[in-house]
Amino acid sequence: MNTIFSMKLTSSYKRLIPFMHIIGWCIILGVPFFFTGQEKVYLDFKSYIRAILVPLSMMFVFYVNFFVLIDRFLFKKHVLHFLLANAVLVVIAMGTVHFLMPVLSPPPPDEHHPPLTMVIGFIIVNILLYYLVAGLSVAIKMTAGWFKVESDRRDLEKSRAEAELQNLKSQLNPHFLFNTLNNIYSLIAVNPDDAQESVHELSNLLRYVLYESSQPLVPLEKEFNFIRNYVELMRIRLPQHVELHFSIDETTPGTQIAPLLFISLIENAFKHGVSNNKVSFIDIDIRQENKRIICLICNSYFPKDLQQDKSGSGIGLQNLHRRLDLIYPGRYIFTHELKGDEFVSLLEIQT
User: Fold this and answer.
1) How far apart are CA 243 and CA 346, in angstroms?
2) How far is CA 217 from the centre of its chain?
3) Is this prediction's pTM over 0.85?
4) Which end of the chain is more exposed for a tag (fewer CB within 10 A), N or C?
5) What is the mean pLDDT of residues 216-222?
């Protein structure tokens, strides 16, 4: 949620920057039209230029800093050069204003010169104002730079997450295919007819895996249909001493979910929950409760010999952990543990 809010804030800020500049300067340059004084019915050209001369000089200081000095000196950590350049800039701005003011509106002949201390104080105040404008330019530039860096970081993070997620899905497809083909291969010697039917069912499953699941989200009912077909495919080759309980509830229309999140747990149950000569069981319960999708699987546990098992054991659960972190950060519960001779897995997703 924070990531989405930050991305929206960054995008909104970037769009607002030009309007902020335009509106700000329109207000400053428009002020003289509203304060012409009681002695004037209208504002003539010279009086207007005289009124906006100081704001224009400040605009000059602001944008020279914004577009030139900050990038050239401050961002390169040449602080002394930055301060000296601003000193020259302020002198140019103040000198220009001092030269043009008498030209635009000459003072009355009998005007008395102010005391030297007042002149010095006036100059110091003006210097501070110009440096304040330069500081404002730095603040706005730094803020814009932070938003740009943050935006670039978010884009990079999103691209990296998408690439990693795609890589995880590319690992999942061969892993799923390998395990399923391994099951069908073992079925050929026992029941060729069932093996042939299994190949047909596998083609339907692969169609979903390769095409339907290419989308970031799929309808939950399609995912549930895929799981039903997979379980039925696996049921064909189960020995009679294996007890399978499978329950999957109907879904609320319109619910979307990331594809292929439950298949690793179900594969794991069939892989390690079935013994060739011992009583075995697999209980699979998948249901939707409001906005939660809950998958609870309990099975007998017969660990495979790692020396003989070449089916990629262990890839599925590690893959699932990482996919959940990327797709549902902070919105899922995933536990799996061995309780005596039973293996229990729980996956709960907040959609």
Assistant:
1) 20
2) 17
3) no
4) N
5) 89
